[in-house]
Amino acid sequence: MESILELLKDWVIIRGFGSKALSILITVVLAAIAVKTTNSLVNRLFDEEKPSKINMDPHRMSTIRGLLKNLLKYIIYFIAFTSIARLFIDITGLIATAGVGGLAIGFGAQNLVRDVITGFFILIEEQYNVGAFVQVDGISGIVEDMTLRVTKIRDFNGDLHIVPNGEVKKVTNKSNGKMRALVEMSIAYEEDIDRAIEVLTQASEKLQAENQSILEGPTVLGVSRLDDSDVVISVMAKTVPMEQWSTERLMLKTFKQAFDKEGIEIPYPRRVIINQSE
Questions:
Q1: Residue 51: helix, strand or coil by DSSP?
Q2: Which residues contact 181 (CB under 8 A, 6 or more apart)?
Q3: Around Cβ 159, how many Cβ atoms within 10 Å?
Q4: Angstrom distance (rounded) from CA 16 to CA 137
Q5: Of 140, 147, 156, 261, whose CB count within 10 A is highest?
């Protein structure tokens, strides 16, 4: 009889652990399904291919979408954690005694709270969005992702910088408004300056008509510098964000071809060698 009672006792224990393990498994699966479902719903809500749903800037829409998905994921994970914790401890008693260790936890989590609050202020004040070219505390690059706690910046070398939002002290947003594209063209001192400016002006007008990313100009500013062997003429344009570098390359190519077509010389270093016998 004692052996039977021991077996029954062990069976009850094993059954209890099996039931809890099954409950944990079901909770984890449901949490994963919920996260995937909410992510799908958020993606459908902020579908960039259907801007009629929400009239918002695409970059800001992408930022809010990432933050909302992140927030919903944390909420689902918290609910799943509390559901699993109920299987082992009394949540009511834990909440009642939470005030004892709340102060210590608060000191440990103050950086986390600061990061989250700062993240919300960055979003509300529109300091930057996903896809923006920014400089944050000496780090320059493209904002690749933004969560409630951190901002991920990819620099032009390919390195990914993860900056806690609470440590963002100074932000320089280089994607806000029209961007400047500035090039300098050199001509020889023997060339006619007015003719060179006229050629640059005609090439600029053609360039603006064919390029939608140019918002203003290009405008020939005139002679900006007299160097040792050349006269420097500056040309400036205003472009949409992140297109200033490609516009500068296109301007240099177009102006060089225009000078070659009109026979205007761009000076370059030359070396003349005279033999002593001559």
A1: coil
A2: 214, 218, 236, 237, 238, 239, 244, 245, 247, 248, 251
A3: 10
A4: 54
A5: 147
- The letter for the amino acid at 93 is G
pLDDT tens digits for range 52-67: 455 555 666 666 777 7
**150-160: pLDDT as tens digits:** 888 888 888 88
Q: Quick one: which H or E segment has residue 34?
A: helix 2-45
210 and 250 Cβ atoms separated by less than 8 Å = no
Residue 56 near residue 45 (C-beta atoms within 8 A): no
231 vs 223: CA distance, rounded Å: 7
CA distance 176 to 114: 26
Closest CA to 185 of 174, 173, 199, 171: 199
pLDDT computed for residue 61 by the predictor: 67
Say how far apart CA 234 and CA 227 lie, in whole Å: 13
Q: What amino acid is encoded at 6 in this protein?
A: E
Q: Which residues contact 165 (CB under 8 A, 6 or more apart)?
A: 115, 116, 118, 119, 122, 148, 149, 150, 151
Token look-up 């440590």 returns 167
The CA-based angle 111-75-21, given to 5 degrees, is 110
